[in-house]
Design a protein that fits this description.
This protein has nine helices and eight strands. By secondary structure, it is α/β, with parallel strands linked by helices. The chain has one domain: Rossmann fold. The protein has an eight-stranded mixed beta sheet with strand order 1-2-4-3-5-6-7-8, sandwiched between helices. The protein starts with a strand and ends with a helix.
Length: about 290
């Protein structure tokens, strides 16, 4: 396996930092990792290396404003949260897609939102996502609900007023976030079905309904931010796609939470996703 830092250029000209992981032997398929909000691509390195060891050429990226795709300062940096999917992840899909090889995608949290926003989702043969949910505090346990409401209504407004962006890194929550990502995320988390319930985003429902890609959405019972009920509320938007929800019991798999899906102890979950992709490839090859 070899890893190479590369640059991607989105349709609007924004340059993104990405990494390509190539297998040592023959490449059987391509795979894009669609990361979570505020999580740099390096977090997915072990998964990408594992997938490359299984014959996948893997592409990870940092969305604009994050990691290697961040400007010198986030103060004054403006963007649309949906740009991460419509422009940044779309560029990754175009780059990773090779004629004659199936393209798969693995998502994490926001990655499950992003898929339905892609203008080129039809290029992806199968999609597996971990920890995707609707974001509404009402789906969360009471203790986490109070923490999240404090973030949205106390810590977030105060810290963004001072910094000009959300300084998440100082709170130990992840990468710092552009101000527009914070504001849109906060706004949509007011709704039980996230942006599907926002009257200003009415065009998204038919867009998501048009997706027909087979999907698996995996959520742990101890994921305080995206428990299975939250997943079901969001994934219902993919009403034209055959999707399956899988609930993970920490009594069987160990503690997972919202981030444990990509930690080294979760290798069995990676194997399940890749086995499913492999089975799909065999099915694709059997079609004349």
């Amino acid at each position: 396996m070899s890893a190479q830092n590369i640059s991607l250029t989105a349709a609007d000209g924004y340059v993104l930092g990405a990494t390509r992981y190539r297998p040592d032997g023959a490449t059987q398929a391509d795979l894009v990792v669609a990361g979570a909000t505020g999580v740099p691509q390096g977090f997915y390195r072990r998964f990408a290396e594992h997938a490359a060891g299984r014959g996948y050429e893997v592409l990870t990226l940092d969305y604009r404003g994050i990691g290697r795709s961040a400007p010198a300062s986030l103060r004054g940096f403006r963007m649309d949260y949906l740009d991460w999917a419509r422009l940044d992840l779309a560029a990754a899909v175009d780059t990773a897609h090779h004629a004659g090889r199936p393209l798969m995608m693995v998502g994490h949290s926001f990655g499950g939102h992003a898929f339905g926003l892609l203008p080129n989702h039809h290029q992806v043969a199968a999609f597996w996502t971990f920890a995707t949910g609707a974001g509404w505090h009402g789906w969360m346990p009471r203790s986490e609900r109070l923490r999240v409401l404090a973030m949205w209504h106390l810590i977030g407004p105060l810290s963004t007023r001072i910094a000009g962006y959300l300084p998440w890194s100082r709170l130990g929550m992840g990468e710092d976030l552009p101000i527009d990502v914070y504001r849109q995320w906060k706004h949509w988390c007011r709704y039980p079905r996230y942006f599907f319930d926002d009257p200003a985003q009415a065009a998204l429902a038919p867009q998501f309904a048009a997706v027909q890609t087979p999907m698996v959405a995996v959520n742990a019972l101890d994921d305080l931010w995206a428990p299975p009920a939250s997943r079901d509320a969001f994934m219902a938007g993919y009403r034209g796609a055959p999707w399956t929800g899988v609930d993970l019991d920490p009594a069987t798999h160990g503690p997972i939470g919202h981030m444990g899906y990509f930690r080294p102890r979760a290798v069995a979950l990676w194997q399940q996703a890749l086995d499913w992709f492999d089975a799909g490839q065999r099915s694709l090859r059997s079609v004349p």
